[in-house]
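Narrative of accomplishments. A recurring question from our advisory board has been how the design workflow behaves on a single, concrete structure rather than in aggregate. To address it, we present the structure tokens for one chain from the evaluation set, followed by the sequence designed for it. No filtering or post-editing was applied between the two.
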């Protein structure tokens, strides 16, 4: 594995993969669960390869009653499930690891599990569960006298309250986390706390304070060479500039955020930033640039299997093509998106896309086709119990010109 790590760092990827396979075979022969761990020296493994290693590690650890290796394998597999969107499986894995870590008094594994599962519950809109896990984390940190660890769980609690609309509580908790980070010299923790305070300011529409906060977080990120943190701060500075009408400054910040996302290989941040650039340039009539940005975003979404994101991006591309009177291309964008939304059972998106097809057919002069699409959208909005949307579509249908009378 060490040789594979050296080969990977020197970009000898095929050699690294061969060495990885040899390590897997040897570890399996010696029943060494620790050697099989997928989080050793950085290796060029994809998700499937990591899963194979960690499943084998878990199997060996269980057979040999190596509880620590079992806990670590469960945590790694749960993390993979979380990254791949397998939320229920990730939740089950984290809970198994936590139960085992508590039973064996493995405080490190328990802390990791509480933090990871708390973040999962926070991300999937289960605030009460996330709060409970983060509070358990604080109690654990206090029991071992780890102040820095306490700060990270305080920050998690603040993030949950912010997402839940409890701005005052979020600010107080995040300020506590910032105080802990500064007192313990935890620069990454300080950066994250400053970012979170800026986010609270942004939620309360205190734009100048939010911008100042993100600029402060940017400086800390640069100090600790955190490229991801730098990109995150620049993205939100760009968003504030865009909101305040400074489009050129916004584009500059977004482009620097995009460069950071590309440097770190963060596909989600690349898509988010490209979409923001597409929206920014579309709003000020630079349609060719906007189409280029959205096209890049859609390609990344497609490569990563993000169907929902791809549907939304195609809808925006259709609007951009409509603005440049490329109606046939706009129609194609919408037809593909509508087919994808039907397969993903996204009813509201499907109804919206049908109404937009009606708009495009109206612009192309195909009144019969427009009526059919509007009728489909009306039926779907009514079935979804969305009368306001249905009324908007009905008004568009009623405004259609009459069919030309043949001479």
């Amino acid at each position: 594995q060490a040789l594979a790590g050296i080969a990977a760092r020197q970009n000898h990827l095929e050699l690294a993969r061969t060495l990885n396979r040899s390590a897997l075979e040897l570890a399996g022969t010696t029943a060494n669960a620790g050697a099989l761990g997928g989080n050793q020296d950085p290796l060029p493994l994809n998700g499937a390869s990591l899963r194979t290693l960690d499943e084998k590690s878990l199997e060996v650890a269980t057979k040999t009653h190596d509880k620590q290796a079992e806990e670590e394998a469960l945590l790694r597999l749960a993390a993979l499930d979380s990254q791949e969107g397998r939320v229920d499986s990730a939740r089950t894995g984290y809970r198994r690891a936590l139960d085992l870590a508590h039973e064996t008094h493995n405080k490190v594994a328990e802390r990791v599990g509480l933090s990871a599962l708390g973040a999962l519950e926070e991300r999937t809109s289960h605030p009460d569960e996330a709060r409970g896990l983060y509070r358990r984390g604080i109690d654990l940190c206090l029991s071992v006298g780890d102040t820095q660890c306490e700060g990270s769980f305080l920050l998690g609690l603040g993030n949950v309250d912010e997402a839940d609309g409890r701005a005052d509580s979020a600010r107080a908790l995040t300020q506590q986390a910032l105080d802990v980070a500064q007192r313990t010299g935890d620069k990454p923790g300080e950066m994250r706390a400053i970012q979170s305070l800026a986010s609270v300011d942004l939620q309360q529409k205190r734009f100048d304070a939010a911008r100042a906060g993100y600029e402060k977080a940017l400086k800390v990120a640069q100090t600790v060479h955190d490229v991801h943190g730098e990109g995150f701060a620049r993205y939100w500075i760009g968003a504030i500039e865009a909101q305040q009408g400074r489009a050129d400054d916004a584009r500059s910040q977004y482009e620097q955020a995009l460069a950071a996302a590309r440097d770190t290989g963060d596909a989600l941040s690349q898509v988010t930033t490209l979409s923001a650039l597409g929206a920014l340039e579309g709003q000020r009539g630079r349609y060719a640039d906007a189409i280029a940005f959205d096209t890049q975003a859609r390609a990344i979404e497609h490569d990563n299997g993000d169907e929902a994101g791809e549907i939304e991006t195609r809808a925006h591309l259709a609007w951009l093509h409509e603005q440049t009177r490329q109606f046939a291309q706009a129609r194609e964008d919408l037809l593909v998106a509508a087919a994808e939304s039907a397969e993903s059972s996204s009813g509201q998106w499907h109804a919206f896309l049908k109404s937009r097809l009606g708009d495009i057919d109206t612009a192309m002069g195909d009144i019969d086709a427009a009526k059919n699409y509007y009728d489909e959208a009306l039926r779907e909005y009514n079935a979804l119990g969305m009368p306001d949307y249905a009324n908007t579509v009905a008004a568009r249908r009623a405004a259609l010109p009459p069919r030309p009378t043949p001479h």
